[in-house]
Specification:
276 residues; alpha/beta; D-Maltodextrin-Binding Protein, domain 2; Double Stranded RNA Binding Domain; 3 domains; 5-stranded mixed sheet; 9 helices
Length: 276
C-alpha cells in the first residue's frame, strides 16, 4: 500500500512529516511525501490575523485530502482550527514533545528588550509580563527568524521549543518558558495526522491516548471561546488541569482561568473577554 503524506514544504514541516512517515512505515506500507504550499507560506509579510489567523497553514492540505490527492496530512496541531473540517478527522496524535515557548538570544526576559514574534498570543503575554518591552513583528520559517534576529539587532525572538528541537537547533534556546510565564498555543508540541472520515485506520496505530486527551481539551476550550472573540487566546493541559487565557494584545489586561471541562472554561474566558 502506498500512503501519500501531505505536508507544508518548509524544512521544519518536512522534518515533522518524515518523522510521522517513519512511524507509519512497515511491511507492505510505502510512503510518498507530497509538499504543498499554503496561504501562510505564500504570504510571509502580513500578520497572521490579516491572512486568516488559525488555519493559514492548513487549508490547502485539507483541500488536497478532500480531493483525494493525498491520504494523510501532517500538521503542527497548533496550526489547526479549533473545530474539525467536515469530512476530515484527526486520526492520530503521536506522542507530544515539548509544548513550551523558547526565548532565543537571551537567557531571560529583561526590561527594555526588543523581542521579535508574529504571534498575538506571545505579544500579549510578553507585554503583560514586562510592559517596557518592544515587541516587533517577525515572520518567516525558523531559520529565517533566527537569522533576522541578528540582522535587525533584536535581543531575542520567541519560537516553539519543539520546532527547534526537531531541527537540531536546541543550542539556540536561551530559556524554555514555563507555561506559568507563557501559556502555549493550544496543541503546541504535538503533531496531528489528519485523514478522511472513516479512514482513521491508516494512522491509528501511532495515536497516543494521553496526547489526544490533552490536545483535544485545549482545542475544545478555544472552540468554546468562539470565533467572535478577537482577543488573543491560549490553552494548555498539563495532564491534570486545563488552563485557559485571554488577554489584550497590548498586554494591558490578561486573565487566566483553570478547570477540567473545556466548554465551561472556554465560555468563561469568552465572557471575560466580552466584559473588557
Amino acid at each position: 500500500m502506498l500512503l501519500r503524506v501531505g505536508s507544508r514544504g518548509s524544512r521544519l514541516a518536512l522534518t515533522q512529516a518524515e518523522r510521522a512517515a517513519e512511524a507509519l512505515r512497515g511491511p507492505g506500507v510505502e510512503i510518498a511525501l507530497v509538499p504543498i504550499t499554503t496561504a501562510g507560506d505564500r504570504d510571509r509579510t502580513r500578520p497572521f490575523g490579516e491572512i486568516g489567523s488559525r488555519g493559514v497553514f492548513v487549508k490547502e492540505l485539507e483541500e488536497a485530502l478532500l480531493a483525494g490527492r493525498i491520504d494523510v496530512a501532517v500538521h503542527s496541531a497548533k496550526d489547526m482550527t479549533s473545530t474539525d473540517t467536515t469530512g476530515l478527522v484527526v486520526g492520530a496524535y503521536p506522542v507530544r514533545e515539548d509544548a513550551r515557548d523558547a526565548l532565543c538570544g537571551a537567557p531571560e526576559i529583561r526590561p527594555g528588550m526588543r523581542i521579535g514574534t508574529a504571534s498575538a498570543r506571545r505579544r500579549a503575554q510578553l507585554l503583560a509580563l514586562e510592559p517596557s518591552l518592544s515587541v516587533e513583528p517577525l515572520r518567516g520559517n525558523v531559520d529565517t527568524r533566527l537569522r533576522k534576529r541578528g540582522e535587525r539587532g533584536l535581543d531575542a525572538v520567541v519560537l516553539a521549543a519543539c520546532g527547534l528541537d526537531r531541527l537540531g537547533l536546541a543550542a539556540e534556546i536561551g530559556a524554555r518558558l514555563d507555561p506559568g510565564v507563557m501559556l502555549p498555543e493550544a496543541g503546541q508540541g504535538a503533531l496531528a495526522l489528519q485523514v478522511r472520515e472513516g479512514e482513521e485506520g491508516l494512522v491509528a496505530r501511532i495515536d497516543d491516548d494521553e496526547t489526544r486527551r490533552r490536545v483535544e481539551a485545549e482545542r475544545g476550550c478555544v472552540a468554546a471561546v468562539g470565533g467572535g472573540c478577537l482577543a488573543p487566546v491560549a490553552a494548555y493541559h498539563d495532564g491534570q488541569v486545563l488552563t485557559g487565557l485571554v488577554a489584550a494584545e497590548d498586554g494591558t489586561w490578561l486573565e487566566r482561568r483553570f478547570g477540567t471541562d473545556p466548554g465551561t472554561l472556554g465560555r468563561e474566558l469568552a465572557a471575560l473577554a466580552a466584559s473588557r
